[in-house]
Design a protein that fits this description.
Elements: H1 3-8, H2 13-20, E1 28-31, H3 34-41, E2 50-54, H4 69-73, H5 76-80, E3 85-87, E4 110-113, H6 126-134, E5 139-146, E6 152-154, H7 166-170, H8 193-196, H9 227-236, E7 241-246, H10 249-254, H11 259-269, E8 279-284, H12 287-291, E9 299-304, H13 314-323, E10 326-328, E11 335-338, E12 341-345, H14 348-354, E13 358-364, H15 379-390, E14 394-397, H16 404-409, H17 415-425, H18 428-440
Parallel strand pairs: 1-2, 2-3, 4-5, 4-14, 5-7, 7-8, 8-9, 9-10, 10-13, 13-14
Antiparallel strand pairs: 5-6, 11-12
Length: about 450
């Protein structure tokens, strides 16, 4: 509360608060102005309302005493005379560290912007990729699809209904392919690239029932890119790494289309197979696809796990290591949840790290309804848990607020410290919730 501002407007905040407390309960009132807090001491009920002194920058001058905040903080006993607590900038609790030099898996957390900044623009479009580069992404990814006439391009799904207006023009092409999904779709390998280009990209909201629509102003902005366009963009922007995601290659092969061969040729034509400064990550849920890239040592292979697991037997770990150097793991295989609360952290990350296999957490979202209550429905708290407490090596994100500055501050803790912290925090909110239910019941 900035009382001086309201006084300048000839408004009496103290009187207003005194009136509304007759009808509603106010738990906390914060202000950087000592005079206002002292005045409120004679107005509020101290048993119901706590006054908090808001500490600003160290050199900021407090208007009542004309002292700097740094000098006021040296005399905590004087603050106690008019406030029950102090609100300080986050840098006083968790100082931000300078960025470290980039490396693949250890020390620096990789930021993968999922399909570009796909929470701001339609995913896998030119605008989404540009936004992600502007946001400082370590990796930009392309989920490779192939049209009926053999053109490789980036699209977030084999089904055109997810991310385009295909329904308006190609509904007659709707079909159900059980290997891909249990519902009807309009599949890319049934249309030529020319027809696909007639469609408009669409910004999807992953939680449509929540009423949280993503950036309506950009809903149909951006154009689709061929894989060659994507590679040219990455080369021109000097992106440190690119990730090529290949799924359903075996289904395309049934139609006489070889995605793996075409991807190999495209990367070679763009000279990424000989790059020393820009690394290529090949990701797939199919080890037979990954094995086809074994002969290019410059490529880093990533296994995308789809099934939910809670343990990785040693034999399985050894088998995984034959094909890849990293694994993209479902969040539910890392943090187990129940009714919006965390119930356990698995040992999957540590088991893979023991074999020197890097681990990535797939798409984290910032909509509060997508985040468990134990993370305070806060995306930064969730991110801090995955990096600091769990020790993940890379995160996939949708929005550009996740800057390198934030990630650079979230260094993984030693395993012993992580374990102790996990044991003390997992299920804490769940336990509290159950206690509240028992009291109410």
């Amino acid at each position: 509360m900035y009382d001086a501002f309201y006084i300048a407007k000839k408004l009496d905040v103290s009187s207003y608060i005194q009136k509304i407390t007759r009808f509603i309960s106010i738990s906390y009132i914060s202000s950087p102005e000592i005079g206002f807090l002292k005045n409120m001491n004679g107005i509020i009920n101290k048993d119901k309302t706590k006054l908090i002194f808001k500490y600003l920058e160290a050199n900021a001058v407090e208007p009542t005493t004309k002292q700097t905040c740094s000098s006021i903080l040296k005399d905590l006993s004087s603050i106690k005379s008019f406030a029950s607590g102090i609100l300080v900038p986050k840098e006083y609790i968790w100082p931000l560290k300078p960025l470290n030099a980039a490396r693949l898996s250890k020390g620096k957390i990789l930021v993968i912007y999922h399909h570009g900044a796909s929470g701001i623009y339609p995913g896998i479009t030119d605008l989404a990729y540009q936004q992600s580069v502007d946001g400082g992404a370590d990796i930009i990814d392309c989920s490779v699809q192939m049209s009926k006439d053999g053109v490789l391009f980036c699209f977030n799904s084999a089904d055109l209904l997810e991310g385009s207006n295909a329904m308006t023009s190609f509904m007659s092409r709707s079909a159900m392919i059980s290997e891909i999904q249990p519902t009807n779709g309009i599949f890319l390998f049934d249309l030529t690239w020319t027809k696909i280009q007639t469609m408009t990209s669409e910004l999807n909201s992953p939680l449509p029932n929540s009423g949280l629509e993503r950036n309506p102003a950009n809903k149909t902005k951006g154009k689709f890119l061929t894989l060659s366009d994507f590679l040219d963009f990455a080369m021109a922007k000097a992106v440190t790494r690119i990730l090529i995601d290949i799924e359903f290659a075996y289904l395309a092969s049934k139609k006489g289309l070889s995605i793996t061969d075409a991807v190999t040729t495209a990367l070679s034509n763009a000279t990424f197979n000989k790059q020393a400064t820009q690394q290529v990550l090949i990701q797939s849920d199919d080890t037979s696809v990954l094995s086809k890239f074994n002969n290019v040592l410059a490529y880093w292979r990533v296994l995308s796990l789809k099934e939910i697991i809670s343990v990785v037997p040693k034999k399985t770990v050894e088998e995984i290591k034959r094909y890849v150097g990293a694994v993209n793991i479902p969040r539910s295989s890392i943090v187990e949840t129940n009714d919006g609360f965390t119930t356990a952290f698995t040992n999957v990350i540590d088991q893979l790290h023991d074999a020197n296999i890097s681990t990535y957490a797939p798409v984290l979202r910032n909509e509060y309804v997508a985040i468990t209550f134990d993370f305070f429905s806060n995306p930064v708290m969730e991110l801090a848990t995955y990096i600091g407490h769990i020790g993940i090596d890379g995160v996939c994100y949708l929005l550009d607020f996740l800057s390198q500055r934030i990630v650079g501050a979230l260094a993984p803790q030693p395993r012993s410290a992580r374990k102790a912290k996990q044991q003390s925090t997992v299920g804490g909110f769940l336990a509290a919730s159950l206690m509240l239910k028992s009291v109410k019941g």
